[in-house]
Write a structure and sequence with these properties.
Elements (H helix, E strand, L loop, with lengths): L2 H9 L3 E9 L4 H11 L4 E9 L4 E9 L4 H10 L3 E7 L4 H15 L2 H8 L3
Antiparallel strand pairs: 1-3, 1-4, 2-3
Helix pairs in contact: 4-5
Length: 120
Amino acid sequence: MNSITRKYRESGAAHTVLELDVNNHAGVMSHVVGLFSRRVYNVEGILCMPVGDGRSSRIWLTVAEDARIEQMIRQLEKLEDILSVRRHGANHEVFERVGEYFRQQETGDRRQMTEAYRLG
């Protein structure tokens, strides 16, 4: 369990993971997080990686699950560079795998690092 997951489970607050496919060019991340910032909506975790030939990227966001989440998803879908938005439950494995990768990096176990890093 990584620190983000642990924090939410201990506090009892619900959260969700949003998976965004976006065009990969300068300013896209700024537009995405700016949308959340303007609405005073806290983003707890961000992970971004290029997909395929590098023309698109995938962004995962961990955000609080509250009454505004549906509106936030609709707003994201309106952004020009957003190709798709998918919503996952709190136990989505992407942040857990990244956390495991860094834990293994600290111990120096390269074989386990490779297994943990496969984000699927």
